[in-house]
Amino acid sequence: MTDGWDWRRPGGAGAPAGGPAPGQPQPGAGGSTTSPWWTDALADPWRDPYAPAAVVVPAAAPDASGEPEPVTDPDRPTRPGLRQVVLISLITALLAGSLGSALTYAVLRGGDVPTLGAQAGQAPALAQRKPESLAGVAERVLPSVVTIRVASLGGTSEGSGFVVSAEGHIVTNDHVVADGPGKATVLFNDGSTAAGTVVGQDPESDIAVIKVSRSGLTPVQFGDSDALAVGDPVLAMGSPLSLTNTVTAGIVSALDRTMQAGEPGGPTRYYAAIQTDAAVNHGNSGGPLVDGGGRVVGVNSTIKSLVADGQEAGNIGLAFAIPINQAKRVTEEIIGTGRARRTVIGASVGGTGATGGGVRLNAVEPAGPAATAGMRTGDVVLRLDGHPMTDPTDLVALVRKYAPGSVVTVEYRRGAARQNTSVTLAADAK
């Protein structure tokens, strides 16, 4: 088996046994010969197959001396003479000198000689990204994203955050700073650090505000979480698993995903969250969820996982962020007054409706928002602003999403009759 090449070492041994003798045509693949002059020799009608393979030269008459005429092999290689050696050397030197001069001139004059590799001082490729690209968005937002470390008796907890004012206010999750002494270390995108003080926190909305004394900060740009649609592209930024300045990409997977969360013995938190499949892990908490225009639309807060209790949870493509419209309102109240107001409907909820779904009101506060709108104890809330109610968590989480004073439509059932009303939500009395 060969690769199709009938190779012979120049000046090597003769043909192998059974092959043609040296000097004879070499057979090629399929029985043909390797020389193009012999490919059709056997089919040549002018060839006498019985003629001897020799050339007969008539004998020449001997010269007067009686010695035979000398015979010279025309194919025998001859040694070059001195004139040939000198001539070849001269031509080679002239060509080499001309080529070297041409290359030197081209380099000195900035010719078209190709340059391999990047030159010192060349602009990085990232600077060529379009501002609306994901790389452009990340480059613009990352300087405003920070890592937050809080030391406590139980150890050091770590989360993320983002700058919201030039005066040094930073937003993060309440559960990032909840176990600390009110102090934190803030690590910035450029590697520098600053001491931070907790201005205020709201455990139920899971929002906290930290302040650092530092100039030259770049606040993020806020988006509108109410304008999001399922399928919109988003980026999650922060420090998952202590990997600072991390960016992951995904889409908005769902909106107003209601859930209840909290640690044993701690506050109960309610979320009407933005669901995303962007990779989010421990350490991402408090970092921004950013839309395709580089605007913050949410605060990354929780993840879903399939691990058992006590095991470390990881990303499985189910992450949840607090809508920025809610987070921004809570942040402004914390900065302005040191605390945030909690939005209520003026009723407590119990189990679900016996038939037809919905959640039942166990008690309605006199003169509260629900009572003022005509609702009574025992009514079953079916929808709030078009969102179906299937669990008591749904009603609480959605009410907390709105600001006090917001007007929402409520569809409810009393007995067999369905009714609609408008409820003006209020702030709690705390």
TrEMBL record:
GO terms for biological process: proteolysis. The keyword Disulfide bond does not apply. The keyword Glycoprotein does not apply. SMART domains: PDZ (SM00228). One of its GO terms (molecular function) is serine-type endopeptidase activity. The chain crosses the membrane at residues 85-108. Residues 11-21 have a biased composition (Gly residues). InterPro entries: PDZ (IPR001478), PDZ_sf (IPR036034), Peptidase_S1_PA (IPR009003), Peptidase_S1C (IPR001940). It comes from the Bacteria. Gene3D superfamilies: 2.30.42.10, 2.40.10.120. It holds the Pfam family Trypsin_2. Keywords: Hydrolase, Membrane, Protease, Transmembrane, Transmembrane helix. Residues 1-44, 60-79 are annotated as: Disordered. Residues 334-414 form the PDZ domain. SUPFAM superfamilies: PDZ domain-like, Trypsin-like serine proteases. PANTHER family: SERINE PROTEASE FAMILY S1C HTRA-RELATED, SERINE PROTEASE HTRA2, MITOCHONDRIAL. Belongs to the peptidase S1C family. This is Trypsin-like peptidase domain-containing protein.
